[in-house]
Amino acid sequence: MLAKEYGIESVELDQNPLDTLIETILSQNTTDKNSSRAFKALKSHYPTWESLRGENPKAVAKIIRSGGLAVIKAERILSALEFIASEKGNLDLNFLRGMGSPEAEQWLGRIKGVGPKTRSIVLLFSLGKPAFPVDTHIHRVAKRVGLIGPKTSREAAQTELARLVPVEDFYSFHINIIEHGRAVCQARRPKCGVCRISRFCDYFNRLTKAQV
Ligand code: SF4
Fold it and tell me: Does the reported pTM lie above 0.90?
């Protein structure tokens, strides 16, 4: 039903995984608009990631300040570049394509400051591997609908939703449930009256029973 409402997106796998990793670090705790501005600024100052290596974190923080938490993010990005270069001798993450999803996730997990959501985003969006990133919208909608329990953490939700959704639908479902969370199932006032999936929703069913 979400696919009927919002369409079916297919993943474009030509994205450089290191670009995705850095974009995702920049997107933590901010809007897409701000993080995209910060990413563009970073790319225009440092056309290659190699040219960013070893830079002063404060100078980098100034460039990415539109993305918020600039000092922390600058330090995370610089330390990720150092880790990758020290492990692989270069800044190319394409070797992850040849690994299984669990191994690739484990490798990415060794980078400081790279949590479960960031790892899953790199796996799904850049490498086309089965991983289900859970952001704040997905977490909220999945809990309300009852796809996961009310106390399920975001990290646990990644595994639980990955079990529920067919692998070939991961990407589209991920995009559509975020869209639904933004447009209809909003945090403060969900628009249940116009929601196309209300009949499957625990929150809605509880609400209507309470009103009878
Ligand atoms: S019925 Fe309401 S709570 Fe349930 S998914 Fe729709 S908008 Fe969200």
Answer: no
